[in-house]
Specification:
DNA polymerase, domain 1, hpI Integrase, Chain A, 2 strands, Tyrosine_recombinase_XerCD
Length: 301
């Protein structure tokens, strides 16, 4: 059945059988109309064609203001999702669709903060400022290059073993949350840094008891706290005044890919996000960058 037909049936149900107030019904009708317009633009002519990923994309578009629309606050986008959920729940109850695809879609978090990122120039400065004269410095260089090249969480990078990288492959298998594995490219710069560390750095740190790739001075797996300190030290050497953390490189990885033309689904896979809604926050960062360029360069900004 066409989405608009279902929407009309639902609104009539709310008015006649549920006794919803005129003001509430007016608000629902406005949100339903917006949702119908989005589905039509997405080519969904039957409610059975709609998937949970469509609902996630709809909420993301509301948040970032797609197609020239005004971006909605998390609370407003959340209310719009509530209306869409009500519509889909009604369709299931009436036997019009088989599954409630909206029930598992999470509303956007209130007060969602855009992640801090570094520019491409700042990341290059950070990595180029890493010395490589000692085994520990070779390790630090390889660690930072790997984090930025893969966009992996610091725990995922620290979880790598020597066997994961010893064959010179340009793609790594990373184990993420819940033990889920995914493939991530390494890149030539990171691969070279890893190889240099394996040949001239790690043997001096190893005591033979740990298979972890990144080792501390005792020959055991490097800790998250140590990785944090390595990044702080690198930022100081590069003269960066931003307050950066291991996650900053992950945020920068995602933002730079999107700005370079990568699609959000690909970035979702690389980051290991279960939902594209989580990845969509990086499109907000890119939009902010675009607006800043526009404000600086446009004669009538």
């Amino acid at each position: 059945m066409e989405p608009r037909q279902v929407a009309t049936m639902w609104l009539n149900h709310l008015a006649v059988e549920r006794g919803v107030s005129a003001n509430t019904l007016s608000n629902y009708r406005r949100d339903v109309e917006r949702y119908m317009g989005w589905l039509e633009a997405a080519g969904r002519t039957n409610l059975r064609e709609v998937a949970s990923t469509d609902l996630e994309a709809y909420v993301s578009d509301l948040r970032r203001g797609a197609d020239g629309a005004r971006p909605l606050a998390a609370s407003s986008a959340g209310r719009a999702l509530v209306v869409a959920r009500g519509l889909h729940k009604f369709a299931v109850a009436e036997g019009l669709v088989d599954a409630d695809v909206a029930s598992t879609v999470a509303p956007p978090a209130a007060g969602e903060k855009l992640p801090d990122t570094l520019s491409v120039h700042e990341v290059a400065g950070l990595l180029e400022a890493c010395p490589t004269g000692t085994p520990a410095q070779l390790r630090d260089k390889a660690l930072l290059e790997t984090m930025y090249a893969t966009g992996a969480r610091v725990s995922e990078v620290l979880g790598l073993n020597v066997d994961d990288v010893s064959d010179g492959a340009d793609v790594l298998t990373v184990t993420g949350k819940g033990g889920k594995q995914r493939l991530v490219p390494v890149g030539s710069h990171a691969r070279a840094a890893i190889d240099a560390y394996l040949v001239r750095g790690r043997p001096a740190l190893a005591n033979g008891s740990s298979h972890a790739l990144f080792l501390n001075k005792r020959g055991t797996c490097l800790s998250r706290q140590s990785a944090w300190g390595i990044i702080k030290d690198a930022a100081a050497r590069a003269g960066l005044e931003k307050d950066i953390s291991p996650h900053t490189l992950r945020h920068s990885f995602a933002t730079h890919l999107l700005e370079g033309g990568a699609d959000v689904r690909t970035v979702q896979e690389l980051l290991g996000h279960a939902s594209v809604t989580t990845t969509q926050i990086y499109t907000h960062v890119s939009a902010e960058n675009l607006r800043e360029v526009w404000r600086t360069a446009h004669p009538r900004a």
